[in-house]
Known about the structure:
Blueprint: E1 3-7, E2 10-13, E3 18-25, E4 30-39, E5 46-52, E6 57-59, E7 67-72, E8 77-82, E9 91-101, E10 104-109, E11 113-118
Parallel strand pairs: 2-11
Antiparallel strand pairs: 1-3, 3-8, 4-5, 4-9, 5-6, 7-8, 9-10, 9-11
Amino acid sequence: QVQLVESGGGLAQAGGSLRLSCVASGSGFSISVMGWYRQAPGKQRELVADVRSGGTTTYADSVKGRFTISQDNAKNTVYLQMDSLKPEDTAVYFCQGDIGIGRFTYRYWGRGTQVTVSS
């Protein structure tokens, strides 16, 4: 069984920074893609950024130039460095992973971590 555990959320002022971490734990798995989604109250969950095993990254237009996703393959960990935060970045941030186990790939989600940005 694979678990994704997030950490690093909290409260920041507009213009400030936060760093999120997500660790994939378990055994016998490989990671294809890991990323971050967010969901604000009353809105749909949306992709923030993801990174493929080869290093290719994708960012939502709203965070380009402000957020940076990175990975440590040895630690099965993905990070999201969030700079120049805005109040509209306030949301629950979920770690997501496309995890290969045997011949199959499964999508896993973390439980989420709250990020609140005050103006």
